[in-house]
Amino acid sequence: MSIDDHEFRSCLGQFATGVTVVSCSIGGTIHGATVSAFMSVSLDPPLIAVSLDRRSRACRFLEHRPFAVSVLSCCAHDTALHFAGRPQADISIGWVPGRIAPTVRGALASFTCLPWATYDGGDHVLYIGEVQTMTRQPGDSPLLFHQGAFHRIGAHVAGMPWHITLDSPTAGTIWHANPQPTKETS
């Protein structure tokens, strides 16, 4: 069975993602790329992953280098366009220098990483980084990418998705998939 590239991309576009800028510094020059293929991999050790088109310059820049991931706020769509290959004429990118890699000033969260592993992902390369430093700036909403366009978070829809899961930030108890029934007494 053959998968149509256009239809595959359209189906993938139904999954809303956050928008990040992946950056590194080479000889004092900062390089960055807009990436929506970003995810957490492990809590122990702290690992994250980004996926880059192997034909991109950014892909070559990350090979065996420390890198940073900056999670963009909903106000940073010009920054996202700039690093997606659509240079914005009047934009001034503020960088936060770091011992490991520079991050975008004003990012909602940022992670600096040392290279952990690289994997072949077909026409993409998956870079796994071990997080060395992180920051977060609460307040603003993240920039989202859905169906080929940038979006903001809308109204709150439902309860806590992490409630009673091991991924909950407040989890301190191990929950079982098939809890034992309790006896009720009157």
Summarize the structure.
This protein has about 190 residues and is mainly beta. The protein has helices spanning about 5-10, 55-60, 75-85; strands at about 15-20, 20-25, 30-35, 40, 45-55, 65-70, 95, 105, 110-120, 125-135, 145, 150.
Could you explain how this protein is built, in words?
The protein is 11% helix and 37% strand. By secondary structure, it is mainly beta. It has one domain: Electron Transport, Fmn-binding Protein, Chain A (Pnp Oxidase, Chain A, Roll), CATH 2.30.110.10. The strands form three sheets. Strands 3-2-6-9-10-5-4 form a seven-stranded antiparallel β-sheet. The chain has a three-stranded antiparallel β-sheet with strand order 1-11-12, with no helix packed on it. A hairpin with a 4-residue loop joins strand 4 and strand 5 (47-53). It is globular, with a radius of gyration of 19 Å.
Radius of gyration: 19 Å
Round the mean pLDDT to the nearest integer and report it. 85
Sheet with the most strands, sense and barrel status: 7 strands, antiparallel
Strand residue percentage = 35-45%
State the order of secondary-structure elements, H for helix, E for strand: HEEEEEHEHEEEEEE
Write out the strand line-up for the largest beta sheet, numbering strands in chain order.
3-2-6-9-10-5-4
Q: State the name of the first-level CATH class.
A: Mainly Beta
> What share of residues is helical?
10-25%
CATH fold annotation: Pnp Oxidase, Chain A
Query: Count the strands?
Result: 12
Tags for this entry?
186 residues, mainly beta, Pnp Oxidase, Chain A, seven-stranded antiparallel sheet, three-stranded antiparallel sheet, 3 helices, globular, disordered C terminus
